[in-house]
Amino acid sequence: MLTAPLPSQIDIRKLVVKGAEISANPPISSLPRIEDLLAEGDSGKDSEIAVKLEFYIDDERKRRVDGKITGTVNMTCQRCLEPMPVPIDVQFELGIVWSEEDAERLPKTLEPLIVGEELVDLADIVSEELILSLPYVNYHPAADCKQDVGYSSVDPEAAEAVAKADADNEKDNPFHVLEQLKFDK
Ligand SMILES: [Zn+2]
Fold first, then answer.
1. Are 110 and 64 in contact (CB under 8 A)?
2. Rounded distance, CA 27 to CA 2, Å?
3. How far is the C-alpha of 185 from the C-alpha of 176, rounded, in Å?
4. Helix or strand or coil: residue 74?
5. What mean pLDDT, rounded, does the chain reach?
6. Cβ-count burial of 124 within 10 angstroms (0-12 exposed, 13-18 middle, 19+ buried)?
7. What residues have CB less than 8 Å from 141, skipping those under 6 apart?
8. Per-residue pLDDT at 148
């Protein structure tokens, strides 16, 4: 894949006025803070992402950036500690605003992107969205994992870590809360 870093130090409002569209395959190493999250030693060489950004003014005169990130990144399986591919398919809708105050006036469907007079690096924006979307913990499917799945349930420390990770994952699940309510009765 042909890769090139995303444009840096741009006037984002100019891109909006122009109605610009940017499609790129940025190298992982050009995205701040992403490499640290990937499988150790991979340094992004087996990870590939494609980015599409659309800059425009919408019907309500809001300055918008709609984005899509797709591809695969290599993360570490928390059970066997071997790398595993994690598919990426993220979409986001940003509303460009000058201040926190303006941000509060945005419709809930838009994520505020607060930009003052300064120029911005698109890699920062993409990196931020990618980090938000990456799963906190990853496991191979049981059949593919180098670590015998049964083993982790008898190793108290590993079992505890897995249970905690599962609990973290389920925190936001409303059904889980219902289950607990039933259980409490
Ligand atoms: Zn594994």
1. yes
2. 9
3. 15
4. strand
5. 85
6. middle
7. none
8. 80
Q: What's the pLDDT tens digit per position in 75-103?
A: 999 999 999 999 999 999 999 999 999 99
Q: Tell me how far the alpha carbon of residue 83 lies from the centroid of ligand 1, in angstroms.
A: 8
Residue 80 near residue 145, CB atoms below 8 Å? yes
**50 touches 9 (CB < 8 A):** no
Residue 86 CA to ligand 1 center (angstroms) comes to 12
Q: Is 15 exposed, middle or buried (0-12, 13-18, 19+ CB in 10 A)?
A: buried
Question: For residue 71, what are the β-bridge partners?
Answer: 49, 88
Can you give the residue ranges of every domain in the chain?
Answer: 12-145, 148-185
Any idea what DSSP says for residue 115?
-
Angstrom distance (rounded) from CA 7 to CA 109: 26
| The pLDDT of residue 162 is above 70 | no
Q: Is the pLDDT of residue 167 over 90?
A: no
Q: How far is the CA of 149 from the centre of ligand 1 (A)?
A: 9
pLDDT interval class at 39 (50, 70, 90): confident
Query: Cα of 11 to ligand 1 centre, how many Å?
Result: 44
